[in-house]
């Protein structure tokens, strides 16, 4: 078999709802020299049937059907099985614009010093309608990428990236410890050895809906992201990365010992707590205790009383009362 120019890497778990149009958007690309790896991570719905039917229609699709092992294991398996020197990520609930691969492969061909290129996104809801998102765009230069790291801004849209396979494998691929934010950790590790940016074109339609990972695992994702940024700080200071060999992150209270500094856990809480104030999922799980601990440590109170009201609207008067009592006690203190 001839080596394709690009390997498309898609992992799917119970993705029947949006999978077919996601696949079709890849097959409709103006650049067609690719293999399309679709890994079914032990789905219990009709995902496998959809993949088999698509593979029967287009020989570029390579189905991988197996038991559930989780997203990080799936992404690393896709990296290992990819035959092309370039890998394009794609999720099973998003839509590629027809010219996406052509634009990205041309950029990487013309910029050999760049190892990763993403794109801006058009944000849509579960019905394909516009979804309002605020905040800065993904940086369109490496210098902007480094500034985004320092400011805590978004770095790359994971399902919109194309990267050099061997470069990603040289840093160990995706790290299991950073489940639900494995991409952020990877970009931070790659930023020390290559240039990264996004094309200022909306080459992917990125879908938002209640059941996606970022909604269901908001607290774990944000804690992992904050720890990944601490690890970046350690590497930038010339110190060893204490997360490099971990298979999972320790509890928050053990971060001080892990990083060998007395403020590691409080720094993570300070980064995570403000982002949880608007997350129903985060306030409904152990993220609530993180917010309370953050206040007890003297954290900023901006928006906290509005969060009390928000908890009441969420139908959680017990936590609303706990947060109000914590605010009252920290005011006295």
Automatic annotation (TrEMBL):
Gene3D superfamilies found in the cross-reference section: Spore Coat Polysaccharide Biosynthesis Protein SpsA, Chain A (3.90.550.10)
Superkingdom of the organism of origin: Bacteria
Protein name, as recorded: Glycosyltransferase
Signal peptide region: none
Family, similarity comment: Belongs to the glycosyltransferase 2 family.
GO molecular function, one term: glycosyltransferase activity
Keyword tRNA-binding: no
Occurrences of domain Glycosyltransferase 2-like (ranges): 7-170
Entry annotated with the keyword Methyltransferase: no
Annotated EC: 2.4.-.-
Group of enzyme by EC: transferase
Any matching Pfam family: Glycos_transf_2
Keywords tagged on the record: Glycosyltransferase, Transferase
């Amino acid at each position: 078999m001839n080596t394709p120019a690009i390997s498309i890497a898609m992992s799917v778990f119970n993705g029947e709802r949006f999978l077919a149009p996601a696949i079709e958007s890849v097959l409709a690309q103006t650049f067609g020299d690719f293999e399309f790896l679709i890994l079914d991570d032990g789905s219990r719905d009709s995902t496998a049937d959809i993949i088999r039917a698509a593979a029967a229609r287009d020989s570029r699709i390579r189905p991988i059907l197996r038991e559930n092992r989780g997203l990080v294991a799936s992404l690393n398996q896709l990296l290992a099985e990819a035959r092309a020197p370039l890998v394009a990520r794609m999720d099973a609930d998003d839509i590629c614009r027809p010219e996406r691969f052509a634009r990205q492969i041309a950029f990487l061909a013309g910029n050999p010093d760049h190892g990763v290129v993403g794109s801006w996104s058009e944000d849509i809801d579960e019905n394909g309608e516009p979804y309002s998102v605020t905040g800065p765009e993904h940086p369109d230069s490496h210098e902007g990428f480094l500034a985004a790291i320092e400011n805590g801004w978004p770095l790359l849209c994971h399902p919109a990236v194309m990267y050099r396979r061997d470069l990603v494998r040289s840093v160990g691929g995706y790290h299991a410890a950073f489940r639900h934010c494995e991409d952020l950790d990877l970009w931070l590790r790659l930023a020390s050895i290559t240039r990264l940016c996004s094309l200022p074109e909306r080459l992917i339609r990125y879908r938002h809906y209640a059941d996606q990972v970022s909604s269901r695992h908001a607290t774990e994702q944000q804690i992992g992201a904050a720890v990944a940024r601490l690890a970046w700080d350690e590497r930038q200071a010339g110190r060893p990365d204490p997360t490099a060999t971990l298979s999972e992150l320790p509890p928050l209270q053990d971060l001080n010992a892990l990083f060998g500094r007395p403020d590691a856990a409080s720094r993570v809480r300070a980064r995570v707590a403000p982002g949880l104030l608007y997350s129903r999922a985060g306030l409904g799980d152990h993220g609530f205790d993180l917010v309370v601990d953050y206040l007890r440590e003297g954290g900023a109170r901006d928006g906290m009383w509005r969060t009390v009201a928000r908890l009441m609207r969420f139908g959680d008067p017990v936590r609303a009362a706990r947060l109000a009592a914590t605010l009252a006690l920290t005011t006295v203190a």
